[in-house]
Design brief:
It comes from Methanobrevibacter curvatus. It holds the Pfam family Meth_synt_2. Its cofactor is Zn(2+). This protein has 13 helices and eleven strands. The protein starts with a strand and ends with a helix. The protein is of the alpha/beta class. The protein has a single domain (about 1-320), classed as TIM Barrel, CATH 3.20.20. Strands 1-11-10-9-8-7-5-2 form an eight-stranded parallel sheet. The chain has a three-stranded mixed sheet with strand order 3-4-6. The chain has helices at about 20-30, 35-45, 65, 95-110, 110-115, 120-125, 135-140, 150-170, 190-200, 220-225, 240-250, 270-285, 305-320; strands at about 1-5, 50, 70-75, 80, 125-130, 140, 175-180, 210, 230-235, 255-260, 290-295.
């Protein structure tokens, strides 16, 4: 089974609360967070993760995109649509992806690690490209009178983010993940979200995943019809989701499950045995070959030490099945 992460990782030196100065530096000095990306990459690799992230170190999942997409303007803590959504001049997340890939390759090609990994293990390694979904981004902003309705805004934004996904694939991403945390809340129209995901995924040739947070009872069957390869959900913090997975597994039609096996909302470090038990529940429903193993959600709100230990125990648990 392949191990991965959902996205964010704690900043080095506990810099989770970005100062105004650091945010300004981030916008105008593209490499101001390179050390944090390096820290994130090396921490994940040291824990044994296969498909890592760049750590999403430059900001939260909304501002990483809406700060730079033409049509949006921020007033205080709220984004407003001021004009029709258009494509930014350059891809938004490619630079950090490339930085992460470089640090990953440097790590894997170091003398110590060349001896540590065999070819099969190295071939599994990669960096995922992560995009906050258009439904979540529009739900997080005020659309005003620019669009007749929310659906039109979401679909326009999906067209813009489609080019982001293509750019991430072309830059070397191992997989693409779309984060739609609001889908499980009932605030979003699932059919609109489905159309948007289809727009974004139609030209992608690497594994394409959707990540949803929370209780999935009202949306999981719908998710099985989305044009994705992987459906990633929380199972450690929301064990009731196993019931909904079990009841709808017959609709998966070849899709794999991203099985969240560590609770990222709780600083308690799960034991290897606890994680093994969670994985066993997933295997019993969909089979070992249909699982990717990861945390429930992003890890940015945890301390560096706790995040690392949780990931390390997760990898140890996976190895009990892979050995």
């Amino acid at each position: 089974m392949i191990s991965t992460v959902v996205g964010s990782f704690p900043l080095s030196n506990n810099k989770n609360d970005l100062s105004f100065k650091n945010k300004i530096l981030t916008k105008f000095a593209n490499d101001s967070y390179k050390n944090d990306i390096k820290f994130s990459v090396e921490s994940q690799l040291n824990a044994g993760i296969d498909i890592i992230s760049d750590g999403q170190v430059r900001g939260d999942m909304v501002e990483l995109f809406l700060d730079f997409i033409p049509g949006f303007k921020k007033d205080g803590n709220t984004f407003y649509l001021k004009s029709k959504i258009t494509k930014p001049q350059n891809p938004l997340r490619v630079k950090d992806l490339k930085i992460a890939i470089k640090y990953m390759n440097d790590y894997l090609n170091s003398n110590n690690n060349l001896k540590k990994y065999n070819k099969e293990e190295i071939d599994k390694k990669g960096v995922k490209g992560i995009i906050t979904g258009p439904s979540t981004l529009i739900q997080s902003s005020k659309i005003g009178n620019i669009y007749k309705n929310q659906e039109l805004a979401i679909l326009d934004l999906a067209e813009v983010l489609k080019y982001e996904a293509i750019a991430l694939e072309n830059a070397g991403a191992k997989m693409i993940q779309i984060d739609e945390p609001f889908l499980s809340t009932g605030l979003l129209d699932v059919n609109t979200a489905k159309k948007a995901i289809s727009i974004m995924s139609e030209e992608i040739n690497i594994p394409f995943a959707i990540h949803c947070c929370g209780d999935i009872k009202d949306i999981f069957k719908d998710l099985t019809s989305f044009n994705v390869d992987i459906i990633d959900c929380e199972f450690a913090g929301n064990p009731c989701n196993f019931d909904f997975l079990n009841g709808n597994a017959k609709y998966l039609d070849g899709k794999k499950i991203g099985l969240g096996v560590i609770d990222t909302s709780n600083p308690k470090i799960e034991s290897v045995e606890e994680i093994v038990q969670t994985i066993e529940k997933g295997i019993a429903i969909v089979g070992e070959n249909n699982l990717l193993i990861d945390p429930d959600c992003g890890m940015k709100m945890l301390s560096e030490e706790i995040a690392f230990k949780k990931l390390e125990n997760m990898v140890k648990a996976i190895k009990t099945f892979n050995s």
